[in-house]
Amino acid sequence: MWTAGLHSESSPPLYYMALGAWIHVFGSSEAALRSLSAVASTFAIFLVYRLGVELFDRRHAILAAALFALSATEIYYAQEARCYALLLIPVLAMLIAGARYVRGSGGNASLAAYIVAAIVAIYTHTTMVFAVAACGLVVLAYVLADRRALLDNRVTSWIGAHLWVGLLALPTLIAMMDPLQRQQLTWIPSVSLHQVGAVLSNTVAGTLTPGRFPGGILAVAVVGILAVSIWRQMPSRRFLMIAVAIPGAYIALVTFVSLSVQPILLSRIFCWTVIPLCLIEAWALLTDDWLRPIAVGVILGTVAVGLCYQLGINPDAKEPWREATRYVATELHQGDLVVLAPGTDPAAPKYYVPKLVHVAMLSSEALAPSQLGIMPGLLGVPGIPYQQVASLINNPLSRTVVIAAAADTAMLPDLLRVTRPPNESAYFPCRGGDNQPTGFACGIAVLVWRQLPAVTERTANSGATASAGAVE
């Protein structure tokens, strides 16, 4: 993860190192794996409160922290064994340090805290390069507008801090430019209005809230109310810097990169923007204005709807590996070979079926596990040519299982055209908070080929005859 993995894996290694240490203490059960994110997200509530105190007062801070704790989006990521909940901690530390630095308090301590937090954030998720860049540019513009900052060297100190961040984060910054990492992201669709709307709905109204209705409508209503509230009752410049300008600059940078270099516009990389969203919502709810009752209704209504869908979650909100592997448990253990489609990560079936032995991945030619990527290399999953899989399936004595994630299902018709029909097939879709299949491609297809009955019967009869002969 720290050497060749930096180039071939698009996610930096820090979260995986933290999770590895967590596993040594708490084990590798689902609850243990998810608990790191739950603990990190819970601690982030306290940091949201500290940021609120820094920008406003205790009353605003408590309300912002409460809104963050009730955010359906944050509850969703707090249950994942992924880096997004842990990412909140360095991001919040960055924002707190930046807010203190522009206020002129903390001095070198604030600057040092910012440097450490920025480096940790970048090594937790690659897109934090854009968050650090956004924070650096916005804070620099703020201090340049302050004449006192020019006298006390805050401008040069801030620039120097980012030079240190760039130097210490250089390995992952270089790896970002590697074509291998770009190839890992080819599945991300190009930017479209539908995708932008999905990001907005998932971030504001909750990941499991249906996108068009009510999620999209509520998200637009919340953003509209907050924009009007800011326009009518302009908050302090420092608050606007942290809660509006920095996330705004981040969104602009991500959009620019998605349009010009590589699409990366995914809802999950915006999960940290719930922090400034909750700060603005708390400010709007406590601002004495005729718009306040409307803001209360829209914001609290959105929170309630998001929680309704989030807390009514079914087990299939993510790829339903548990259900799919249980469905073919016998075949997975007794089959001659389990074949994974090229883009189907072997980590999930290996986790849910730890004793799975005869497993391989479809590839253009026979390849060693290490040639297929990090996870196949770690788990010892080799590559098997397409023609060999078809030949094995067509063998009447073989028992074969093919598993394909949603992104790989397009290759199944080509396989079925050159093989005998499967004895059994099933598709397990991901489901949203309304228990309906998700609008985006997400799920697992399972196809099972068993021994042909005639062959099985003939084999059994041959065995019985041989046994009878032995007795005689």
What does this structure look like?
With 472 residues, the protein is of the alpha/beta class. Helix content is 64%, strand content 7%. It has 25 helices and six strands. The chain has helices spanning 5-8, 14-26, 30-55, 58-69, 72-77, 84-103, 108-124, 128-144, 147-151, 154-168, 170-176, 179-184, 193-204, 211-232, 237-260, 274-286, 292-311, 321-327, 329-334, 347-352, 369-372, 374-379, 386-394, 412-416, 453-471, and strands spanning 337-340, 359-363, 383-385, 400-405, 424-429, 443-449. Strands 3-2-1-4-6-5 form a six-stranded mixed beta sheet. Helix 20 (347-352) links the parallel strand 1 (337-340) and strand 2 (359-363). Helix 14 (211-232) runs antiparallel to helix 17 (292-311).
Ends distance: 64 Å
Overall pLDDT level: 88
Which overall shape is indicated by the principal axes computed on the Cα atoms?
Answer: globular
Structural class: alpha/beta
Tell me the count of domains. Answer: 2
Which regions contain 5 or more consecutive residues with pLDDT less than 50? 458-472
Helix content: 55-70%
Kindly provide the radius of gyration, computed on alpha-carbon positions and rounded to a whole number of angstroms: 26 Å
Major pleated sheet? 6 strands, mixed
How many helices does DSSP assign? 25
Strand order of the largest sheet: 3-2-1-4-6-5
Strand content: 5-15%
Number of strands: 6
Summarize the structure.
This protein is of the alpha/beta class. Helix content is 64%, strand content 7%.
Structure keywords:
globular, 64% helix, alpha/beta, 472 residues, six-stranded mixed sheet, single chain, disordered C terminus
